[in-house]
UniProtKB/TrEMBL annotation:
This is (Fe-S)-binding protein. PANTHER family: LACTATE UTILIZATION PROTEIN B. It comes from Zobellella denitrificans. Residues 298-331 form the 4Fe-4S ferredoxin-type domain. GO terms for molecular function: 4 iron, 4 sulfur cluster binding; metal ion binding. The keyword Repeat applies.
Length: 472
């Protein structure tokens, strides 16, 4: 199942009409919100963590070009081979070249949203290379030929019965059960054998440390560690914005990430990879490659306001607290990154032609901005993108790909007329006078408005009656 952002409205309608999907998301989002709330029980501590995380991300982004060069130099000195990819096509070509050079036909993957962004699995399949997801959630959605519906918990849209049905269809010898532990163990038994067979391991990167040339990987299942130590070749891929300046920058960001994402003080595994296996080491890959992907991120970087989008550390808290995402789920957006963060980053990755409807899919309630651990002003950026989708770029600001994709001559005429009327008091008074005299021509029912909303009922007793009774 591969939805498209151009079809957001019918996809959202389909999601709203699916009671099981809505129940799955409702329960999951309530659980995750409660976990985050418990992790930030002290409001003062929460603000301090967010202040620190925001300051680190902004400092690192302000030095991004220099830090990327420093990262490349230190990774190279450590024995990591660094590759640059301007877009998804170049990134996939690099993967194919590296894997073919080692005669590989099977790659095991740890969780990586950037690999989803470039459609790595699909593209490698064209090259005769199978990429097997080893994260349990990713494994489930791969079995179902779906895409992740959440950036932290890819299969959060499925309940245990749906997972059991999927295993019964695709896993030989599986005995149907709703026991969660058995379901998890079934997936692990399948994947354990694949780790032994694969010569290529693929992972994402949570933080890339310029100071030391270290790749940091956050996980809970251990599959990331298996992918980066058992195969002979490890290929890591990350967006260029994930670089941080110092190793000391990582702990504050790690704390903000885990608490915001899953309500944990710390994850089960935290991997730090600084190079391939040394001669006196017993495990680890013989080669480590790092692919640094742009894919539209430079477009956001050069715009000081939109640069704040790149502060994201992929915790998913904005999704968990978004009333729109909670009701329609992730697949309705038709993008790799759904929810509030997806609405502001996808236009840079895919252009406004494809994503023009996404910035309007928000109530602007502000919940996403209130919980973001790095304080991305998501509501303000959504309003900015709504402007970009309909009007010419602001002076001195580079245009987005697909600028004015949602422009409407009719809407522009209406707003110009409204501006003309409201800027001339005499004309405004005349039109409002006419409107009050002609209100009898209004229809008795207002169509969709009255079908979805209940008009306020007249009070049983008037205010005058209540005041008179009070004054007796």
């Amino acid at each position: 199942m591969h939805n498209k952002p151009q079809l957001f409205h019918p996809q959202a309608e389909a999601a709203l009409a699916n009671p099981e999907l809505r129940a799955n998301f409702r329960g999951a989002m309530d659980y995750l919100r409660d976990k985050r709330k418990a992790a930030f029980a002290d409001a003062d501590e929460e603000q301090a963590i967010r202040d620190r995380a925001e300051a680190i991300r902004q400092r690192c982004l302000s030095k991004l070009p220099e830090l990327l060069e420093q990262l490349e130099a230190n990774c190279t000195a450590n024995g990591i081979r660094v590759h640059w990819a301007e877009n998804a096509e170049q990134a996939n070509a690099l993967f194919a070249d590296i894997i073919r050079a080692h005669g590989g036909t099977l790659a095991v993957k740890g969780k990586s949203m950037v690999s989803e962004e470039i459609e790595l699995n699909h593209q490698m399949e064209k090259e005769g290379i199978r990429c097997l997801e080893s994260d349990m959630g990713e494994y489930i959605v791969q079995l179902g030929n779906e895409t992740p519906s959440h950036i932290i918990m890819p299969a959060i849209h499925k309940n245990k019965r749906q997972v059991a049905d999927l295993f019964a269809e695709h896993v030989p010898g599986f005995q149907h059960t709703l026991d969660v532990d058995t379901l998890i163990q079934t997936g692990r038994n399948v994947l354990r054998e694949k780790f032994r067979e694969a010569h290529i391991g693929v992972s994402g990167v949570n933080f890339a440390v310029a100071e030391t040339g270290t790749l940091c990987l956050v996980e809970n299942e251990g599959n990331g560690r298996m992918c980066t130590t058992v195969p002979e070749v490890h290929i890591a891929i990350t967006g260029i914005e994930k670089v941080v300046e110092f190793l000391a920058d990582v702990p504050p960001l790690f704390s903000a990430l885990t608490r915001s994402a899953t309500g944990q003080a710390i994850t089960t595994y935290f991997n730090m990879i600084s190079g391939p296996r040394k001669d006196d080491e017993l495990d680890g890959p013989r080669e480590v490659h790092l692919v640094l992907l742009d894919n539209g991120r430079s477009q956001a970087f050069v715009d000081e306001e939109m640069r704040k989008t790149l502060q994201c550390i992929r915790c998913g808290a904005c999704m968990n607290h978004c009333p729109v995402y909670t009701r329609i789920g992730g697949h309705a957006y038709g993008t790799v990154y759904p929810g509030p963060i997806g609405k502001i980053i996808s236009p840079h990755l895919m252009g406004l032609e494809a994503t023009k409807d996404l910035p309007t899919a928000s109530s602007l309630c502000g919940a996403c901005g209130e919980v973001c651990p790095v304080r991305i002003p998501i509501p303000e950026l959504l309003q900015r993108l709504r402007h970009e989708a309909k009007q010419d770029p602001r002076p001195g600001v580079p245009p987005l790909r697909g600028q004015k994709a949602a422009a409407s001559r009719t809407e522009a005429l209406i707003w110009r007329s409204f501006g003309l009327v409201t800027s001339r008091p005499a004309l405004y008074r005349m039109l409002t006078w006419c409107a009050t005299r002609l209100r009898g021509l209004m229809p008795k029912k207002l169509g969709p408005w009255t079908r979805c909303r209940t008009a306020p009922q007249p009070a049983a007793r008037t205010l005058r009656e209540l005041m008179a009774e009070r004054n007796k």
